[in-house]
């Protein structure tokens, strides 16, 4: 993955830039010693690393505005960073960039149960948002699998999803307002405790803009009352295609589970060994979870199990206790870690129409043979968001490149099947150059024009999302 | 009137336009500042492109009548999640509402509080910008973060950024059973308290409205029958401090259709405003507008206000965060007061910047949103 060559004139400015940043921030909020900036050289896409020029960790919206004004003034690119858990390289720096981290912005500013929202600073972690309201019976719905570590700022930048978005939606559906600082230091308030915008839906535009429109420092998030209960059921099939058909039939039947998760044989076996989940020996496994009171759960699971039986399952395992529920989820939640035990892996994130599941799974199998790399499939089947995990050996020369080429083929396959390159991880640098497979030059041009409105000099996270060739003229200007 | 029959014709009509265009779907939602220009209607761009019940997704051309969309979905026991209101009664308009018009005005109904707005179910758009370029964003899958989300931007942009040619939605299974719970005799403050309590419960309330004139508070439950019955009883117990709730089965669907379309205020003299605030500010809105006739939805967060013609309500509401749209008023009033609220300077600058990028000639519904 290519990154633009760093601008030597910017690097030469470092002493002056650092001095100016120190004039608006406390000493400990500016990191510029080379040994220390290394901690910020990559995010969760660890194959790519580059220490930034320096790192700033502002403690307020005002400090963020002051930093951006200076960087704007000095014409220095800024790379926003939440918790650094992006799998797409969303916060990968360049040598001539300033990393702006929100790690010190972690306060809860307001909890309002009557109006069902919480207002937080965006460096707060996803799980700790729920942590702040759960004693009162509420939760924050989006639950990306990195939720223990990932920051709300990053969730907003990438419009993160999770396992339960079939029912509750993704970040954009749970975001009510933001305070955002634009590159020129202008502070903008959008939305709040009320619903829907009066004018253009800027909130919808900002969410998922990968830190290219501004730095979101505060967010108003919708919180929901916790359901009375939830219960999963595990279904094992001897054929992936049959499992896929079962998913479509469940959806058609009029029940809406909160989650439908799919795992294939490689994932089942590795996570079973890794987490001792006690999964059956099968080709495909579904975990379907429903919510409500005990009686409501029984009724919904009754419908679901009846459908599943028509597809000749090897096993149907209904949870009878919280312990059994946890065990059913255990393997699924350990799947990524388990695959990590057998090698390095790349996690893809394409989405496909649910009806194309059997075809796409078959093609992925063929690509796996063609490239000679193992692939595990674990994904949110209810919404078609796939996470093929390609296993490779980072120490073997050429293996990463081979893996990337195969990943690109799989993502193109997702687009051909009527889907998209990324369902919840974002484009970052990882899928940047594949954007031309999903969008026409005109489709990309209008998106870049939107960035022009927010950041005319293209200083905010400039080398992300768009193919480098497409954004070159704007970045150079 | 220009009525393109294909996306290509739509593109030609816009690139070849010599002056401003007034964009309409079915013309049933005449919302916004007055616009003069040649009428361009999307009503001939019709038809369902892709409907996959097993994937809960629909792709449909923008001019397709809403009624046709809803009938297509109902045949598979599915629906649009956001329950779009029909503006005809309250706007005094005629014609056939189109699905593109629903999107252009981001039209949602009482279920907004539970299932989100139109923009939350919208997963893809195709549109033609002010220079005739045919563009797409989003797609036909539920989860998609590939590039910027222009889908949301197009929802509620009233044809000022582009003319929609095709829209895609995620859907929900149909509703098996609907019940309403009715509480009587509550003032606005107590009513909002009752609605907040209900909406903060785990009983999945899908509608919470209040009629301050009749002092009638109505909650809605939807789902499988046994579940609805169970939750209705639980809610009745939970809300006992607010009085004895009556549970209505027969006629609950029609009752909510009337609330959705604000039928109470249809055909009445005066200007109609639509105000969005925090639900707990609903009572403050009521107190600030003593002369207006009010209806509340979204747990108190959506206030419909019928007031004297020509009056600007915004100064009276200036202390309350949220926004007020002048939905129905005469030409001169809308031109003088502005249908949409004035925006803070940074937001106004971005809005203006977006318009200039999407429609550099300023020909698409110019001035409609300000």
Overview of this structure, please?
The complex is a heterodimer of chains A (477) and B (370). By secondary structure, chain A is an alpha+beta fold. Chain A contains 18 helices and 18 strands. In chain A, the strands form 4 sheets. Chain A has a 7-stranded antiparallel beta sheet with strand order 15-12-14-13-17-18-16, sandwiched between helices. In chain A, strands 5-6-10-8-9 form a 5-stranded antiparallel beta sheet. A 4-stranded mixed beta sheet of chain A has the order 1-2-4-3. In chain A, a hairpin with a 4-residue loop joins strand 5 and strand 6. Chain B is an alpha+beta fold and 370 residues long. Chain B folds into 3 domains: 7-173, Uridine Diphospho-n-acetylenolpyruvylglucosamine Reductase, domain 3 (2-Layer Sandwich), CATH 3.30.465.10; 177-260, Ribosomal protein S10 (Alpha-Beta Plaits), CATH 3.30.70; 263-337, 2-Layer Sandwich (Alpha-Beta Plaits), CATH 3.30.70. Helix content of chain B is 28%, strand content 25%. The longest helix of chain B has 14 residues, at 225-238. Chains A and B meet through strand 9, helix 8, helix 9, helix 11 and helix 17 of A and strand 7, helix 7, strand 9, helix 8 and helix 9 of B.
């Amino acid at each position: 993955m290519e990154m633009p060559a760093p601008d030597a004139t910017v690097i030469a400015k470092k002493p002056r830039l650092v001095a100016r940043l120190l004039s608006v921030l406390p000493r400990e909020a500016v990191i510029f010693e080379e040994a220390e900036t290394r901690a910020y050289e990559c995010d969760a896409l660890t194959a790519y690393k580059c220490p930034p020029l320096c790192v700033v960790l502002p403690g307020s919206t005002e400090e963020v505005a002051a930093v951006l004004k200076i960087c704007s003034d000095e014409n220095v690119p800024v790379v926003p960073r939440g918790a650094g858990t992006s799998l797409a390289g969303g916060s990968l720096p360049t040598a001539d960039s300033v990393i702006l981290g929100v790690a010190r912005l972690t306060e809860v500013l307001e909890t309002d149960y009557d109006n069902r929202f919480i207002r937080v600073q965006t460096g707060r972690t996803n799980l700790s948002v729920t942590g702040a309201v759960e004693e009162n019976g509420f939760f924050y719905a989006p639950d990306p699998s990195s939720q223990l570590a990932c920051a709300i700022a990053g969730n907003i930048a990438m419009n993160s999803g999770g396992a339960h978005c079939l029912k509750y939606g993704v970040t954009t559906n749970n975001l009510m307002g933001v305070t955002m600082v634009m590159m020129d230091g202008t502070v903008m308030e959008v939305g709040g405790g009320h619903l829907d915008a009066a004018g253009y839906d800027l909130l919808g535009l900002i969410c998922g803009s990968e830190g290219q429109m501004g730095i979101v420092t505060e967010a108003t998030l919708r919180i929901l009352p916790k359901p009375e209960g939830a219960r999963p059921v595990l279904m094992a099939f001897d054929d992936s295609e049959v499992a896929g058909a079962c998913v479509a039939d469940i959806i058609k039947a009029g029940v809406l589970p909160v989650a439908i998760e799919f795992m294939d044989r490689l994932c089942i076996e590795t996570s079973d060994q890794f987490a001792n989940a006690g999964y059956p020996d099968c080709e495909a496994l579904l975990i379907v979870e429903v919510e409500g009171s005990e009686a409501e759960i029984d009724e919904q699971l009754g419908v679901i199990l009846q459908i599943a039986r028509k597809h000749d399952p090897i096993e149907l395992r209904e949870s009878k206790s919280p312990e059994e529920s946890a065990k059913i989820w255990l393997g699924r939640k350990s799947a990524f870690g388990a695959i990590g035990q057998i090698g390095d892996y790349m996690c893809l994130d394409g989405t496909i129409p649910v009806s194309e599941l059997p075809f796409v799974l078959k093609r992925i199998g063929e690509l796996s043979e063609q490239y000679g790399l193992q692939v595990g499939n674990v994904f949110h089947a209810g919404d078609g968001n796939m996470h093929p995990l390609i296993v490779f050996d980072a120490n073997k020369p050429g293996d990463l490149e081979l893996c990337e080429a195969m990943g690109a083929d799989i993502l193109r396959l997702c687009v051909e099947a009527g889907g998209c390159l990324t369902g919840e991880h974002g484009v970052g640098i990882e899928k940047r150059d594949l954007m031309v497979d999903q969008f026409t030059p005109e489709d990309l041009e209008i998106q870049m024009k939107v960035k022009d409105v927010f950041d005319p000099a293209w200083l905010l996270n400039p080398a992300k999302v768009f193919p480098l060739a497409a954004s070159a003229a704007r970045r150079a200007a | 009137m220009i009525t393109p029959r294909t996306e290509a014709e739509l593109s030609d009509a816009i690139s070849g336009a010599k002056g401003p265009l007034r964009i309409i779907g079915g013309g049933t939602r005449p919302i916004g500042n007055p616009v003069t220009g040649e009428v361009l209607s999307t009503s001939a761009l019709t038809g369902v492109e892709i409907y996959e019940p097993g994937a809960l997704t629909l792709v449909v051309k923008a001019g397709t009548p809403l009624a046709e969309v809803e009938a297509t979905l109902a045949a598979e026991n599915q629906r649009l999640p956001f329950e779009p209101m029909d503006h005809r009664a309250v706007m005094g308009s005629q014609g056939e509402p189109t699905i593109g018009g629903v999107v252009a005005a981001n039209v949602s109904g009482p279920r907004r509080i539970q299932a989100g707005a139109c923009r939350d179910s919208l997963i893809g758009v195709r549109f033609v910008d002010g220079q005739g370029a045919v563009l797409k964003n989003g797609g036909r899958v539920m989860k998609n973060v590939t590039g910027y989300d222009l889908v949301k931007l197009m929802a509620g942009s009233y044809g000022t950024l582009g003319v929609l040619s095709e829209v895609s939605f995620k859907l929900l299974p149909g509703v098996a059973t609907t019940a309403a719970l009715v509480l009587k005799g509550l003032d606005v403050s107590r009513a909002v308290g009752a609605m907040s309590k209900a909406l903060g419960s785990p009983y999945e309330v899908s509608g919470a409205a209040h009629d301050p004139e009749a002092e009638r508070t109505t909650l809605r439950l939807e789902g499988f029958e046994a579940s609805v019955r169970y939750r209705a009883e639980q809610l009745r117990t939970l809300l006992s401090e607010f009085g004895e709730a009556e549970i209505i089965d027969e006629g609950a669907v029609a009752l909510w259709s009337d609330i959705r379309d604000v039928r109470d205020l249809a055909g009445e003299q005066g200007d109609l405003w639509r105000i969005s605030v925090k639900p707990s500010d609903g009572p403050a809105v009521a107190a600030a507008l003593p002369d207006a006739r009010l209806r509340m939805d979204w747990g108190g967060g959506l206030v419909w206000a019928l007031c004297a013609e020509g009056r600007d309500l915004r100064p009276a509401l200036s202390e309350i965060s949220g926004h007020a749209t002048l939905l129905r008023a005469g030409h001169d009033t809308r031109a003088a007061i502005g249908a949409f609220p004035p925006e803070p300077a940074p937001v106004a600058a971005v809005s203006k910047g977006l318009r200039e990028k999407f429609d550099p000639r300023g020909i698409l519904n110019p001035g409609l949103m300000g």
